[in-house]
Specification:
By secondary structure, the protein is mostly helical. It has a domain of 36 residues. The longest helix has 33 residues. The radius of gyration is 26 Å and the shape is rod-shaped.
């Protein structure tokens, strides 16, 4: 198969280069987000989850923990 020449070849080369740059940029963004997420200590994660749960149940008017059931 022959390699495209002229303007078509340049356009295809630029499209290929743009796709490689896009993949690299996406990878960098994902890695940055992962580093931020892992920067929390277990205690910080637990505190954030408890705070979010308290806010969610206060908004909905729920009482107690829906995952725990009282046994008679």
């Amino acid at each position: 198969m022959k390699r495209p020449e002229g303007k078509l070849g340049v356009v295809l080369a630029l499209a290929g280069l743009a796709s490689v740059i896009g993949v690299a940029a996406t990878g960098a963004t994902v890695a940055r987000a992962e580093r931020r997420r892992r920067a929390y200590t277990p205690d910080e994660v637990r505190d954030r989850l408890h705070r979010r749960y308290a806010e969610a149940t206060a908004d909905e008017g729920c009482e107690g923990d829906p995952l725990r059931t009282e046994q008679s």
